Amino acid sequence: MGEKINFPEFWGLGLGLFLSLYAGFLNHFTPREPFSENHSGFSSPILALETAETPKHVQDIIGVMENEEFANITSSYRILHYFDFGFIFCYMAFLAYTGHYSGRRVRPIFMKIFVGMIAVLVIGGFADLVENILILNLLDAKTAEEMLPSLEYLKPTAQLKWFCLLAYVGTIGIYFWLYERGILLRISSVLFVTAFFLGLFSIFKTNLLEIGFPLMAVGLCLTWFHYGFSLAFSSLSKKT
């Protein structure tokens, strides 16, 4: 009978690996540049599209129907956002597990807070789903007037998503700092908390999201590496 793997890091490593592969797959469809350089100022056309406020903002990113590249550009965005529906559930699973992992040493107190954290995560994921639908509606719009109903809700929905996700990882960062001693999780803690404050101030300066998101992503990568290292060292210690 085989030895049962009972490491909490095993699930985090598996979820993170699947999430990384999924992100790489989505990156294949992600447009690298906006149609026009004269847009909202984001380097990332995806973030620029999420925070678009006027039809011109959208057209500067995806172009106009009269342009011969319009069909290919909008097709890439559609494929990206269709597959993004699955990606939402993947990152929510990884974040939920990471949140549970961060509180495993202080369970009596943490479990009450963890329920609230999960609620925040679910709200963020739901906002991401709505955001995808709004963007798909924009891509299907044939005139600027048809874009207006979706644009009315797009930026607030995107801001709610980012606030919830960054608040969630910020809380995880606090727990990592208080209860973990590993260097990777300590660095992740600083990145998560910094990303949260950048997301908070992005209410006033939206472009701060372009700094906050990479910090969160790097923090999640370091957390994933921690799962892998912990699992490897735990396996090694059992054999020696």
Automatic annotation (TrEMBL):
TM segment ranges: 7-25, 79-97, 109-139, 159-178, 183-204, 216-236
Q: Which UniProt keywords apply?
A: Membrane, Transmembrane, Transmembrane helix
Domain of life, per lineage: Bacteria
For this entry, the protein name equals DUF4386 domain-containing protein
- Where is the organism placed in the taxonomic lineage, from the top? Bacteria, Pseudomonadati, Spirochaetota, Spirochaetia, Leptospirales
